[in-house]
Specification:
By secondary structure, this protein is of the alpha/beta class. The chain is built from four helices and 15 strands. It has a six-stranded mixed β-sheet with strand order 7-8-11-12-14-13. Strand 1, helix 1 and strand 2 form a beta-alpha-beta unit. The longest helix has 22 residues. The model has no long low-confidence stretch (mean pLDDT about 95).
Length: about 210
């Protein structure tokens, strides 16, 4: 199974009339945040496949009518604080980045991130009882602590995400937030059974579906 993941910067190869031709074998799409809603809606309509998203720290409401605002891509499914199933896979997600100012909505302290993650735990334990595993794919905007994180405060990794990986070992953790400027930048790191992937711009990942 192949999935398309996107984050942080519009990819002209995706925002193209060749989208369907290039990615007709994609099973579903993951957005890790900080992308225009109209771009994500273009992907949804172009591929006619499910799109799951989390918000990035730069996401904001967009006024579409005099008394109406848009807070998410139309047709997308918000993963924040949720566990859901897609084609047999167990997905969960968390919005945002570390709090560094008060100008945008999707910023949290490390303590608030712990709260978001801990609320997932009952569902993860239920998954283990029913499906034999806690989680297959974890989707966030920010990276986990100690993996792919930046050196500045704004781009630091999240401690609670690293704890979730260490203790529940999802097969994949897709994140954004960390822009890639050099070809030698590390974008995939394995932690135990979890492959952590920085999905800046866009990536197609062929994922394992037999987790037994």
């Amino acid at each position: 199974m192949k999935i398309l993941s996107v984050s942080d910067q519009v990819d002209p190869r995706i925002y193209s009339d060749k989208l369907k031709e290039r990615h007709n074998d994609v099973a579903f799409v993951l957005s890790c945040g900080d992308l225009p809603y109209e771009y994500l809606e273009f992907i949804i309509s172009g591929l006619n496949q499910p799109l799951y998203f989390v918000h990035g720290n730069h996401d904001h409401s967009k006024k579409v009518e005099q008394d109406e605002t848009q807070t998410h891509p139309l047709g997308g499914d918000n993963l924040h604080g949720r566990i859901c199933r897609e084609q047999g896979l167990l997905l969960a997600g968390i919005d945002g980045s570390i709090q560094y100012n008060r100008k945008t909505k999707y910023q949290y302290t490390q303590g608030e991130m712990w709260s978001h993650v801990l609320r997932l735990v009952p569902g993860l334990l239920y998954n283990k009882l029913v499906y034999g595993r806690f989680l297959d794919i974890f989707v966030t905007h920010a990276p986990p602590r100690g993996v792919h994180e930046g050196v500045d405060w704004t781009h630091q990794g999240i401690k609670a995400f690293r704890w979730l990986i260490d203790n529940f070992q999802p097969a994949y953790h897709f994140h954004g937030h960390i822009h890639i400027y050099r070809p030698d930048t590390v974008i995939e790191t394995r932690i135990g059974k979890t492959l952590v992937i920085n999905t800046f711009q866009s990536r197609v990942t062929k994922i394992q579906t037999d987790f037994d």
